Amino acid sequence: MSPSPLERMTNAGVSALWNDSADPKELAQSIAWGGVGATCNPVIAVTCIKNDLPRWQGRIRELADELPTAGESEIGWKVVEEISLEAADLLHPTFEAHKGRNGRLSMQTDPRLHRDAKALADQAEYFSGLADNIIVKIPATKTGIQAIEDAVSRGVSINVTVSFTVPQAVAAAEAIERGMRTREAAGHDVSRMGNVVTIMVGRLDDWLKEVVARDGLEVDPAALEWAGVAAFKRAYAVFGERRFRSRLLSAAFRNTLQWSELVGGDIVISPPFAWQQKIQDAGSVADADAMSRPVDPAILDVLLSIPEFRRAYEPDGMTPEDFDTFGATRKTLRQFLGADEELDQIVRDILIPAP
To answer: What is the pLDDT of residue 286?
Structure first.
């Protein structure tokens, strides 16, 4: 049997496939297709719990007995830890084989800490200590950039999240470099750190579509499907020019361009499992050198006519203060905070059932 589309990509040994879920069944299949990493966050954790509710109902009751004074949030985040550690265990053989570059499970810091850089770095350090192949997600906000540098200096491998734009990716990569230099100066080995900087390409597409509708702009809607891809390719070029040691990671898929146009770069491609299945079922074959192919200039001209895209595309298009007010940042943080609330509600309904 000939290799599947994802297997052909991963067999090439340049672009790495990670699974945008910690669900054990999905992750096992992704690993079979060549997947070498995975992620968890509050939204993913809630989905995992719902998909295996009887098991987690029982475990939440056990945790309540084990932690008699713990509140709903503490118990809920213990479940997040357990889901994450199960996935980390599945990936550990890959972690050893790749010497820390892959085989990692991304855990996300609590979005409720987004205003406190020290609290984010402290939690990142705690999560990093749960297993040697944990990589920790911190948002690319003004406060998050500070936390990223601090956490990296403590030896935490970071996956930058809540990141949609070239200036966010560059600022995050610079913070990682500063943290790594601090750690190196203190005499520590950083060779097994596996930092990645995510660009949530589909969420940039989503936001620009909202902006175009809001502002009544006359824009070819087909061009908007390329926004995240164009920003990712621009960031990849900047990372190469500046010799950043972090890899870029493509996430938040909305179309197959966000896979097929990026294959061949020294990056991580992290589709949700459903998108991996679509790629497999379609039998699509990506050009092995797709990353080196520029976006059609006509499409890029359309995108650059949108002021909000120019901010997202130019490396100096936004300051860290702007990161916090960028529409995609606000929408994504609110979604993650909403998932925290939903996780609390799940625990509450189990511990205090409605009469």
So the answer is: 74
Taking the C-alpha atoms of residue 130 and residue 84, their distance in angstroms, rounded to an integer, is 10
CA 292-294-300 angle, to 5 degrees, is 155
**202-219 as b/e, with b when 16 or more CB fall inside 10 Å?**
bbbbbbbbebbeeeeeeb
pLDDT digits 0-9 by tens, 24-66: 999 999 999 999 999 998 889 899 999 999 999 999 999 999 9
Number of H helices, E strands in the chain: 17, 8
Per-residue CA distances from 309 to 141, 215, 225, 259 (Å): 18, 13, 12, 21
CB atoms within 10 A of CB 319: 11
Long-range contacts of 215-223 (CB under 8 A, 24+ apart): 217/305, 217/306, 219/302, 219/305, 219/306, 220/302, 223/299, 223/302, 223/303
**Alpha carbon distance 295, 230 (integer Å):** 6
Phi, psi of 39 (to 5 degrees): -140, 155
Residue 292 and residue 171 in contact, taking contact as beta carbons nearer than 8 Å: no
Q: What local confidence, expressed as pLDDT, does residue 42 receive? A: 82
> What tens digit of pLDDT does each residue of 38-49 get?
999 888 989 999
Distance, in Å, from the CA atom of 329 to the CA atom of 152, rounded to the nearest integer, reads: 22
Backbone angles phi, psi at 197, to 5 degrees: -120, 115
CATH of 5-40+102-329, one of 3.40.50.2000, 3.20.20.70, 3.40.47.40, 3.40.50.11720: 3.20.20.70
Q: Domain residues of the chain, as ranges?
A: 5-40+102-329
Find out whether 270 and 196 touch, Cβ atoms under 8 Å.
Answer: no
Mean of pLDDT values over 242-270:
95
| pTM of the entire predicted model | 0.95
pLDDT in tens, 148-197: 999 999 999 999 999 999 999 999 999 999 999 999 999 999 999 999 99
Q: For residue 10, what are the contacts with CB-CB under 8 A and spacing of at least 6?
A: 16, 17, 33, 34, 35, 36
Torsion of CA 22, 24, 28, 33, to 10 degrees: -30
Q: What is the pLDDT of residue 12?
A: 62
